[in-house]
Amino acid sequence: PIGRVPVPCASAYEPLPAFFEQMKVNVKLNGLEDRVRCFNVAVAGDQTDRDLTIRGDGIFFPTLVPPDNTAGVATRVSCTNLIALLETNDLARVDMLKMDVEGSEYDILYSTPSHALERIRELRLEYHNLDNRDRNVNGLKQFLSARGYGITREQAASPVNGTVWARHD
Could you count the other beta carbons within 10 Å of the beta carbon of residue 106? Predict the structure, then answer.
């Protein structure tokens, strides 16, 4: 007899409670409860609680990185980091990590040890050009290249954001 082939597992993280509840509904509607694990936490550079700005000038999506001098409405959220995410889910290897974290991509990736990034074969992420230092697409590509990733796709959506795909061989 042929044994059951293991079903790939996905984990999804959403810090905003209302969005998290909708994510769980979507997973159930699509019959994926046995394949997608949902977590009501933010992914950040460390595991400290943070303010998630949900409304304010120049805020289009909830973010842990609001624009400078922005007064806004925030809520406190629990956070995890990428290394804890890998360990909590017992992930020795990740085929693809998709990130859409509204500016936190630099905090998350830049604080993750190289040995953990080596476990991730492919990254697909939205980037935001936050400053002229290293929190922009050029800094991100240099960071990823220095860690063995080849950039397979880059597409600007506007002067302030776009997508980068990178593969670690």
Answer: 22
pLDDT grade, residue 7 (50/70/90)? low
Helix, coil or strand: residue 124: strand
Report how far Cα 40 is from the mean position of its chain's Cα atoms: 13
Question: Looking at 84-148, which runs of residues are DSSP E strands?
Answer: 94-99, 120-128
Q: Which amino acid is at 157?
A: A
For 129-157, what is each residue's pLDDT tens digit?
Answer: 999 899 999 999 999 999 999 999 999 99
Q: Where are the alpha helices (DSSP H) in 70-113?
A: 82-88, 105-110
Taking a C-beta distance cutoff of 8 angstroms, is the pair 6, 35 a contact? no
Give the 3-state secondary structure of residue 152. Answer: strand
* HSE-up of residue 32 (Cα within 13 Å, Cβ side): 16
Question: Whose structure tokens read 């230092």?
Answer: 133
How high is the mean pLDDT of the chain?
91
Question: What is this structure's pTM?
Answer: 0.90
- CB neighbours of residue 160 within 10 Å: 11
Torsion of CA 129, 162, 122, 28, to 10 degrees: 110
Name residue, tokens 């080849």.
Answer: 150
CA distance 51 to 7: 36
Under 8 Å between Cβ of 67 and 58: yes
